[in-house]
Amino acid sequence: MIGQNQYDQDTLTWSPTGRLFQVEYAMQAVEQGTPVLGLRSKTAVVLCTNMRAQSELAEEKKKVMKIDNHLCIGIAGLTSDARVLAEFMRNECLNHQFIYDTPMNVGRLVAQIGDKSQAKTQNSSGKRPYGVGLLVAGYDEQGPHIFQTCPSGNYFEYYAMAIGGRSTSAKTFLEKHFDKFPDMQTDELVQYAVDAMNKTTVSKGENLTLKNTAVSIVDKEGFRELSAVELQKYLDKVEKKHDDPDATMEDASAAAPMET
C-alpha cells in the first residue's frame, strides 16, 4: 500500500482520493491557532481575539492587524504568514485610495486575497500555502462586512464566525443568537462577542482577562480598539454571569456604554 507521504511532498500532486495534503496541513495550522471571532450588526463589526504568549517571559501576540481606517483582520495560524498578507492588503488599499480617491471595497480586497492564496496551491511545487486564516472586518459603502479566508483560496461572508482552536463552542453559541445581531447596538454586540469568546476558554479552565483578550470595532467612524477600561466592563459582566448561573442572557448583554 502506498503511504500518504507519497502525496504530500508538494501542492501539485493529488492523492488517489482527490486530496491535496499540503493544503489540508495549512488548514490544520489554522485550526490549531488561538481563537478569533467576529460578528456584525447593521451598523458595526466586532472582532474579539484570545491571545497566547509563547512562554511566561513573552508578551501575548496581537491577533488583530489594522489594514486601513475602515478595515482590519483577525488571524488564526502562522503570524508570519499573516504579516505578509497584511502588508499586501495595506498596499492594495493605498494604491486604490491614490488612484480612485475612495476607500478600498472590502469584498474586492478579500477576492484578491483569495486569488493570492489559491495561487500558492497550484503554481509551484517549491512553495507552500499560507498557513493562516483571516477574519476580515470592514465597513464600506454597502455597510459592515465579515469575511473568512482559507489557505485553500476559498472565502465566505458571514453574519458571525469563529476560527482557530476551540472555536467550535464559540460558533455554536453564535449560531444560537445570530438572528438577533442585525438590530443590536454596538455595546450589546461587544458583550455577545466576549460571551462567545468565553466559551472557548471554559473547557481549558481559563478566564478572560485584560491581558489575553482584545476587542476591536469597525463602523462608519472607522477602526478602533477598546481600551482596558472599556473592555473591563464587559469582562465584569462575564464574571458576574459565571458567578450567578441563573442570570439571563439579556442581563449579561446589557453592557455599559462605551467611552469615547
Q: Could you name the key traits of this structure?
A:
single chain, alpha+beta, Glutamine Phosphoribosylpyrophosphate, subunit 1, domain 1, 7 helices, globular, disordered C terminus
Summarize the structure in words.
The chain has helices at 21-31, 79-100, 106-119, 167-177, 186-202, 228-243, 249-253; strands at residues 36-40, 44-50, 64-68, 71-77, 132-140, 143-149, 155-157, 160-163, 213-219, 222-225. It has 260 residues and is of the alpha+beta class. It has a single domain (35-253), classed as Glutamine Phosphoribosylpyrophosphate, subunit 1, domain 1. The strands form 2 sheets. Strands 8-1-2-9-10 form a 5-stranded antiparallel beta sheet. The protein has a 5-stranded antiparallel beta sheet with strand order 3-4-5-6-7. A hairpin with a 3-residue loop joins strand 1 and strand 2 (44-50). Helix 4 packs antiparallel against helix 5 (186-202) and helix 5 (186-202) crosses helix 6. The longest helix has 22 residues, at 79-100. The protein starts with 20 loop residues before the first helix and ends in a 7-residue tail after the last helix. The model is unreliable at 247-260 (pLDDT under 50).
How many distinct beta strands? 10
Summed up, the domain count is 1
How much of the sequence is in beta strands?
A: 15-25%
Strand order, main sheet: write it out: 8-1-2-9-10
* CATH H level, superfamily name: Aminohydrolase, N-terminal nucleophile (Ntn) domain
Radius of gyration: 19 Å
